Amino acid sequence: MSTASFFKRLLRGKPGQARADEAEAQVRRADAAAKQRELAESGDAGAQLGLAQMFERGYGVAQNVGEAERWFRLAAEQGSVPAQARLGEVYLTGMAAPGSETPAAMPHLDPGCTPESLLERLFPEPLAIAQDPEQAAHWNLRAAQGGDADSQARLGHQYASGFGVARDATRAEYWFAAAAAQQHVAGHLGLGLLYAGGYGGRGEHARALEWFERCMATEHASAQLCLALLLLYGEGVTHDEVRALALLGNAAAAGHPGAMFHLGEIHRRGRGVSRNASKAEFWLRRAAGRGYLKAWLSLVELMRSYPDADANAAATMCRQAAELGDGEAQYLLAQMILAGEGVPRNAAEAARWLAKAADQNVTAAHERLGALYPEGAGLAQDFQAAADWLHRAAAHGDEQGLYHVGTLQFGGLAMPRDAQAVGRWYEKAAERGSGAACLALGMLCATGKHVEQDYTEAAHRYREAAVHGVALGNYHLAGLHFRGLGVPRDPVQGLSLLAAAAEADCIEAAWTLHYLYSAGEYVARDASAATRWLVRAAELGSSAAACQLAQRSGKSDAAAVPAERVIVMLEGCAAAGHADAQAMLGRLYFQGKQLPENFSLALEWTERAAQGGHAMAQALLGDFLVLGRGVPVDLKAATGWYERAALQGHAGAIAALVSLRTAEGAGGFGGAGVDEKPQVFQLWLRAAEQGHAAAQRMVGQFYLRGVGTAVSLGEARRWLAAASRQGHAGAMVLLGGLLLQPAEQATDPARDDDATRAAELFRRAAAKGNIDAQYNLGVCLRHGLGVRRDDAKAERLYTAAALHGHVLAQQALRVLKGQSASADTEWQPERREATVELG
Prior knowledge:
single chain, 45 helices
């Protein structure tokens, strides 16, 4: 503000006489200051003190804290106790520069000076006095020895907190008591805080209560807050929640932000009153508005607890507190960012806030940073850095830090493997309440890895883990009860433990209960209960459970869950980034059954899953591009997606690739040219190794015919048998035909029971409606191959196959009915034809 504008504001609206009176008063104050300076410069301590006060307040002189400090010091060095006391106070807290020029300075200023020269004229000395705890202790001691009660209380505080002097509780008590002996409220309050443990050390709450009570006559707000907290939470004192609330109310009404905070917390938590979110928010917001940082954190927790919680608003408020420098808020914000709670997930941003919190010695941030480094989440993967942070957390006794150090050592990461050291780290963490460490110890005992196997001890550790809130403890303990290992065999108890674990958000327990009720293992089969636990797994975020429910929802099943509910769970999993749920949603929108047909949404979800590496989605995206559903037909792009799925062993994608190459005229077996056959074989082999029955059948056929690989009847049998065990009818037919080959055509001698096995394979495949199997089983029955000869049954099988257009069955049926050939002439062509048909 310029000098001219200042005068305009100063003089605006004042009557002429009032302005004249004020000008006269200013002149009198300036004259008084001039006389005071004359005496001060002559060495008068009282005048020096008075002049210092004038410079501090801008009374008759330009306000100047540097000059004030100089004259206070001159007076103090002559033994002025008030000057010593003021220096002790100023150095303890520091003194800010004046906010603007004072009216007293105005008559001495040149109206034409610039803002820069004006500042220099006003404050040729330092603009502020920096905090100096050592100087504060020096002058507080001199003033305290001179009997100043304020200084005695301040010196007591410095000794109690170790601020500017070595911490010394005995001296702190002495000086607080000296102030209290003069009935100074700061002495009473200081003794109360000292005995309450407010400065550290073990509290003597009953003794503290006595000193806080002595402050009540003065209605000191801080004392009211301290007494209220003792009445609520103190040890060895009678709790009085009604009086505590009244004291907090008085202190809050007096503007004490700490009292406002605790009032808000009481209403938030329901301590001595009913929980009241509205009142809690009112007091917490008032405390936060007065700079009480912990109130911001409580507001965040309050907002997160609302039924219709606004996660974004909570995250925004948490960020405000974090940016103000609160370490706990910085840590909480990092956790919210990692979880994507109200803000986008961003591991690098979370790591930045964790580092800030760690710099403020928030031990949990040390542990969390140590956990992020091995994952390479938001930070370059660095096991040594992880170990360093975790050791810092462990040194502070953080149970998770201790646990993670043990886990690093268990894996030999950044430190040598040492089974005994691992056990010690886990033991220390377990002693401090780490449920994860208890669980790890239980698993070590159960498996006998690095320790002697001991199921009894494992059961004990699992129980401890459950007590500390780790639901997997009950899950593993249930397994011991089912098998009677280390505990009595008790399936009922096992089921109860699994249910408790599932209700405590353990997905594994919900899945296990679904399986047990589905299979009727340890419990009667119950489709309704099985579905209930499958739903629970989906609710807990299991995308596999949500996908299974989606597959069942379109069927007429009494236990089926309504499609609308399934879709909600599926969408939740998809939104959380689970590729299998995304792929399932894409498929449902494409099929238009449980959901309205929507090619745009089908494409969106399928592409997200495909980009995430989901093989089925990649194959489905290839289908979209081939069919032109929601996108223009693009066979080249389709081939690219099919190839990505095929490389993961997706049998359908491999078949689609073969089909596309056939359409392109590549020719050869399976649509592959000579040069491509080994590549095609490898793709099918990859799918077969992942357990796809159709792929196993194809690999068996490749080995049988030597396509893309050398002929190997042994490998052909192995793969066809694998597909047959999964119920693949085509593989059963091929394997049966292979078993019926004459021994001289096979590399291995045919076993005596091969014909019996072949006939059984044909029977199983025929039951599935396979017409080749019906024909071949008819041949076995007609000629007694592996079964008793039975022409009537053979005729029925030939007829069934013939009705579906099977040419060989039609010919065999004519031969059987005409009886026009001898047994030998009838069999030979059929056997040769059967051999061709069977591969």
